[in-house]
Amino acid sequence: MSTNTYSPIHVIGGGLAGSEAAWQIASAGVPVVLHEMRGVRGTDAHKTDGLAELVCSNSFRSDDATANAVGVIHAEMRLAGSLIMASADRNQVPAGGALAVDRDGFSDAVTAAIQNHPLITVVREEVQGLPPREWDLAVIATGPLTSPSLAAAIQAETGEDHLAFFDAIAPIVHRDSIDMDICWYQSRYDKVGPGGTGKDYINCPLDEEQYNAFIDALIAGDTVGFKEWEGTPYFDGCLPIEVMAERGRETLRHGPMKPMGLTNAHNPTVKPYAVVQLRQDNALGTLYNMVGFQTKLKYGAQAEIFRMIPGLQNAEFARLGGLHRNTYIHSPILLDKTLTLKSRPGLRFAGQITGCEGYVESAAIGLLAGRFAAAERKGEALSAPPATTALGSLLGHITGGHLVSDDEPGKRSFQPMNVNFGLFPDLEPGSIVKPEGVKRFRGKDKTIMKRQLLSARALKDCASWLGRN
Ligand SMILES: Cc1cc2nc3c(=O)[nH]c(=O)nc-3n(C[C@H](O)[C@H](O)[C@H](O)COP(=O)(O)OP(=O)(O)OC[C@H]3O[C@@H](n4cnc5c(N)ncnc54)[C@H](O)[C@@H]3O)c2cc1C
């Protein structure tokens, strides 16, 4: 069959995700119309009209595919013929173990490849509402700064509670880095709640001296300011913890750090002065978020200050906290496993608007949305990538891996997420074994081996998903 017999798929937004989605669709032999508003209307952060403009840092983060989840997703995307990765590789600048790029060279390479592809037509226009019904297959990839009229249309379709304009991110900790000789499992007042056991939270106890030192550190910590166009998005129930600490030394002890209804299982006769609670964040139970700890502290300050909390002294963070202008939908409720809006068959979402975070992750979700859309147009079945791959674990998190919390204000517990090993299913029991000839095999060595095994498994499973082995 000639490729031109397919009617086009419309991709809205020519950023990291939309460019990758368009490329994947065209590479499958299906025509694409890519609608990008820059050139006609700008955003508050973009400075050029180039496709896939990097709005801030020029780094794609670690390129280590042997033991880093970001490096693994790079490698999987390269295997899948990613335009974003090929353009990054061709425009690399020295950055140690990271993949950093010449931002203009990178964006120029993506723009040229898209514009020169015979199956892709680029239209410079703002799409102001949901795609018309005659665009039977479409992908919305308009990013964190989706134009207001399209955002309003998405909100009308999904419901007010299911589109956020700011994220309010509390740090997420790898469960296996929490010291359970200090912490204990308990829900406040042992409440069982829907789906709970009465032991759903991990609790970290602080005595008065530790609490005061923690508050001093919070108040002294360096913070990131808001950009002028972001405004100051503080709303009830969602103040950064350092702002709460500044409002009064006892504020946190009467808020997210209140000790009431909790008994330290390791020391039941001594009431903690304050308690930090962590709640399970993903269905796998590998990640826990710090309840109520959204923050504007700089990343370096966060890691240092949060490791002052007893039990978190060796905490490994899957994600640090933040508060940014960011348009994103409540994907675990709204999207099916192929990124299609359940209420509008044929309409997919891709990129940061789905609740992933970062250039690479946005492009990765664009890659998947593009492949799913092309397969649908061609009447082919396309299974989702296995959960053991970086692509599959990120997709799984967005479309259902996150646990929705019943007890947080606003019920907006789904927050943007980077790819990290906490999203991967665990290894088979007994996979981590001391290598022959090695005398001391410490916790750190086991962690490195675990990451290596997870990486190798992911790459092997991704290759088989793509029919490459
Ligand atoms: C200020 C800021 C700083 C950031 N810094 C970093 C960083 O350092 N590192 C990192 O990894 N991530 C960073 N991010 C996140 C980054 O934006 C995303 O990771 C990435 O660009 C998202 O890719 P995307 O394709 O989803 O969205 P984008 O790359 O933003 O692409 C969306 C595109 O859609 C277009 N568009 C919007 N509305 C419409 C419409 N109605 N019709 C047609 N076109 C439309 C936009 O013009 C844009 O080109 C930052 C985000 C912001 C806002």
From TrEMBL:
Q: Which residues bind FAD?
A: G13, G14, G15, L16, A17, G18
Q: Per its record, how is this protein called by name?
A: Methylenetetrahydrofolate--tRNA-(uracil-5-)-methyltransferase TrmFO
Q: Enumerate the cofactors the protein uses.
A: FAD
Organism superkingdom? Bacteria
- Function noted in UniProt: NAD-binding protein involved in the addition of a carboxymethylaminomethyl (cmnm) group at the wobble position (U34) of certain tRNAs, forming tRNA-cmnm(5)s(2)U34.
Taking every annotated instance into account, which residue ranges of this chain make up the domain MnmG N-terminal? 9-380
Q: Which gene encodes it?
A: trmFO
Family assignment from sequence similarity: Belongs to the MnmG family. TrmFO subfamily.
Q: What class of enzyme is it?
A: transferase
List the source organism.
Answer: Neorhizobium turbinariae
- Documented EC number(s): 2.1.1.74
